[in-house]
Amino acid sequence: MLCCKQMLAIVSGMGQHRGMASLHVGSLGEFLREQRRSAQLSLRQLAEAAGVSNPYLSQIERGLRKPSAEVLQQVAKALRISAETLYVRAGILDERDREEVETRAAILADPSINERQKQVLLQIYDSFRKENGFDAHPAPEGDGGAGAGAGTTER
To answer: 3-state class of 42 per DSSP?
Structure first.
């Protein structure tokens, strides 16, 4: 499973790279309420499962509070939905960034490759995106010990 720190680093990098979009907390709260009800959870049950207070979750649902990416991740985990979906709803991620985040998340979550291989793969992914005119984002955890020149090719 993708580490919380890795996912937050990805989301934070996206926000720094493009600028944080304004939060659409009203629609986020409505969406959370719908998801909670369809999961047949009370407000109290979801708050407990997500590790947040009942009043705080209520304020989020009513659009009175703007939750952090970390809180959104905890709520998504408790609802068993994609954290990226909540990030898009909250305006933290642009809809078009979602595919990139999901690709990065899949790479980082793959247990069949080691950390160095993951970082090299992310570097290659970034170079292809840059070559094709898309913004490339730095790897969230540094170079992962990949060494100079890893993931680059001669032209």
So the answer is: coil
pLDDT digits (tens, 9 = 90+) for 100-151: 877 887 888 888 999 999 999 999 998 998 998 886 554 444 333 333 333 4
pLDDT exceeds 50 at position 23: no
Which sign does the torsion angle of CA 88, 22, 31, 49 carry?
positive
Region of residue 120 (phi > 0: left; psi between -120 and 50: alpha; otherwise: beta): alpha
Please give the Cα distance from 126 to 117 (Å, whole number). 14
- Cα–Cα distance for residue pair 141/155, rounded to 1 Å: 27
- Give the DSSP H or E segment for 90: helix 83-90
Please work out, in degrees rounded to the nearest 5, the angle formed at the alpha carbon of residue 21 by the alpha carbons of 87 and 99.
45
Query: How many angstroms separate the first and last alpha carbons of the chain?
Result: 36
- The dihedral region occupied by 135, where left means phi > 0, alpha psi between -120 and 50, and beta the remainder, is beta
pTM over 0.90: no
